[in-house]
Amino acid sequence: MTQQLKNVFETEQWGRFEFRCKGPEMMGNPFTEVRFAARFESGERMVEVDGFYDGDGEYCVRFMPDTLGKWTFETVSNRTELQGISGRLNCVEPAQGNHGPVRVDNTYHFAYADGTPYQPFGTTCYVWNHQGEHLEEQTLASLRQSPFNKIRMCVFPKHYDYNLNEPELYPFEGSLDDGWNFNTFEPAFWQHLEQRIQQLQDLGIEADLILFHPYDRWGFSRMSPETDDLYLQYAIARLSSFRNIWWSLANEFDLMREKSMSDWDRFFQIIQDRDAYQHLRSIHNWHNPEIHYRSNEHWYDHNKPWVTHVSIQHHDLNFVPEWREQYGKPIVVDECRYEGNLNHGWGNITAEAMTECFWKGMAFGGYVTHGETYVHPDNIIWWSHGGELHGQSPDRIQFLRNLMKDMPQLGATPINFKWDAAAGGIDQQFYLVYFGQSRPAFRTFNLPEGKRFEISLIDTWNMTVSQLDGEFEGDCRVDLPAVPYLALIFKKIESI
Amino acid sequence: MTQQLKNVFETEQWGRFEFRCKGPEMMGNPFTEVRFAARFESGERMVEVDGFYDGDGEYCVRFMPDTLGKWTFETVSNRTELQGISGRLNCVEPAQGNHGPVRVDNTYHFAYADGTPYQPFGTTCYVWNHQGEHLEEQTLASLRQSPFNKIRMCVFPKHYDYNLNEPELYPFEGSLDDGWNFNTFEPAFWQHLEQRIQQLQDLGIEADLILFHPYDRWGFSRMSPETDDLYLQYAIARLSSFRNIWWSLANEFDLMREKSMSDWDRFFQIIQDRDAYQHLRSIHNWHNPEIHYRSNEHWYDHNKPWVTHVSIQHHDLNFVPEWREQYGKPIVVDECRYEGNLNHGWGNITAEAMTECFWKGMAFGGYVTHGETYVHPDNIIWWSHGGELHGQSPDRIQFLRNLMKDMPQLGATPINFKWDAAAGGIDQQFYLVYFGQSRPAFRTFNLPEGKRFEISLIDTWNMTVSQLDGEFEGDCRVDLPAVPYLALIFKKIESI
């Protein structure tokens, strides 16, 4: 994407510009002792971004321009050889399919930077990027055929039931046996991670990148604060120019007993300070405080200003309206149990239940993330390793995604659709009502006065849509087939 | 049951002895101005019970002897004609099937007075007794074929959706149009109610009698405190000698805005004071305080000493262990939504879901009540009117009841059967583990050291029991068919 001509470059808007140069011969540690950054200017704007040492004597700085036109840049360093190198960057129209990074839109929703709506249909493959070439390519092929446009994945490898293999690469120099040199990153690890993030980007998939997690035998969950911070800065310098990056501070942060709330606050602040593009930031929990209606002591306060959206693990999607109200931010339920038949309680729900989570969460104006955990002869389980999808929910999630593409962003609705239904909409215009396992034989509605509606009946499991005969207004009755997993879509009929 | 010979009578233990006599010709109100009671003595025991005016100049006092042998009695009145009449009562062995009234047993459970275990398998037909002869007899015939041994039913008629008919009888003299004479009871109403309670007793069914409820167009939910108290005293005088009576102070007490917590306390105390037999007492809620993890302001404090067991409306049976711990009393979830296809959210769950509620609640050491709400051409719906059962859950509830007959009373177990399963048992001896909609392909268990167990696999939906091959001990793995609605029963193998 980048063409060089006497330090004159061209990059598409929200593309990734990369400027590399050889650094000085040195005895010290190029990761910690060499500062390398660059200032990019366009008109009155100046954006400074950190560069990083990429091994083999090479330093690199990356930049994702967000506005069209001419940019100039100049490197900043504490080494003469790397200081004051300047150049020009022409930012051109984005290529087809490049809509920029995803931002919060309309308080509870998301859109790409160019305004295109983005509705997250996430999946979970925690360490698919640690499984070696064959399986990783298979995962990408599966994702290409899937409904998913977001993936939760970890920087660090994972140690847990079904996750006992060693990865090929580690983020730091060293080994499990000999210990890690936490001041020396392993560029090959990061280059590999970047390759995978880029491949996701090519598939239109956002990488919800998990920076810390508790499932660890290598010590990456128990690094010193100085190492944590260095690691974050290096990750930001390398990765923030990928437009499809989201920062998930942790998976199940509250299981990382060594870290305090103030550590998490500090991590958020480091990212907020150093990510020039302000990619989305969230943190993901293990505890459910309200299941025993006790205190919120283990619950991160998503109201803090550096949290862009609420990433929640919870099995009960009925809380989505409450969380919306409580936080005034997009709600993404990034784990609500997984479709499968695993021995573990969080990994053996039916495809029907997984699909129900999606419909319920979405109807309430939130978003939901998929995962799959079927027992496999070689212990290759989508939730962690990627590989192939075996379940029945992805087709239904694709069906929902297709439908939602044509829906407005859903908000809370003043119409009382009764508590057994999940419902959202745009008042007086559009309503989505999902009945889940409830199966009424009929329903009465009290539609807004003076408006006529057409109603479509959706069988969310059998993936059919049928428009009901007639028009509906005021107090009206709708007969239903009295089977589970139905939804209704109400659309106002525009007067001609 | 009662034979007279010069005021010498015979009644079986926990049977109902009734002594009637004509009262004085009077101008005043025999319901309020005539005191009529009787003292029953046996050895050093003396039990005083209130009698009541039954119309046609006749006064009646009833007594349920709880110990075998000779009793004497003497009436007490403020009228000469009714004062000091004495007699003898011989209390003989109870007939087959008469186990006495149900009591709390072993903190969390129930047993009949003779020690026979009683496990409530309740159903709900709120006003079946207000539907006229034909339907009421049909209800009794349905109950006879059903798994149910407890029924929730109201004294007062019900006004609500699907409940708009007038009853044939009212508890007070008067009419809806002309108003009620709250000082004058209608004996025919009460005689009819007693007939139905007796018929339930003949079927081995406990009458969980709801004394107040909010669904009212007649004014019975908004009577004065004096009328409430008079009504309670009259009901106790008439009904407490029925051994199958349970006092449910209210259905959804918290919807009766006219009544305060102190009213409910007073009602409990009146019953505690006047019911000589101390039948079970509870109160039933509408609100679920913890669904929005807020305060308990609408939740009756079931710790109060006059509450014998906790009667709860709640859709989530996962709270049963918490309620057991909180109250230290039997937990009966007397409404967790109903099997059916009604337009209302509380009345359209599947038979699978209804059955799941039973298994889950019971596995956690609680008890659960059934209800059924299928749309019907004549609006005859089991939940309120009785009639016929149409659903698929009663057969499964019967299957569970048959199994539980051979189980010990279930308590909390220290074994961690994982949070997706409901489990209870007797430590080191017996465990019931229910997986509900979770469908693991296998499970590992950590059974108590040095004990061997046999395991039965239950398909709770298809109603099959199959014993697994072999014996199980210590850390062991159990392969499962990976379908929903399975349970396992672990029984310690006794050494020979």
Automatic annotation (TrEMBL), chains A, B:
InterPro entries per the UniProt record, alphabetical: Apiosidase-like_cat_dom, DUF5060, DUF5605, GH, Ig-like_fold
Domain Apiosidase-like catalytic positions: 106-386
UniProt domain DUF5605: residue ranges: 419-488
Position of the signal peptide: none
Segments forming domain DUF5060: 11-78
Record Pfam families: Apiosidase, DUF5060, DUF5605
Name of the molecule in the record: DUF5060 domain-containing protein
Annotated organism of origin: Paenibacillus aceris
Lineage: Bacteria, Bacillati, Bacillota, Bacilli, Bacillales
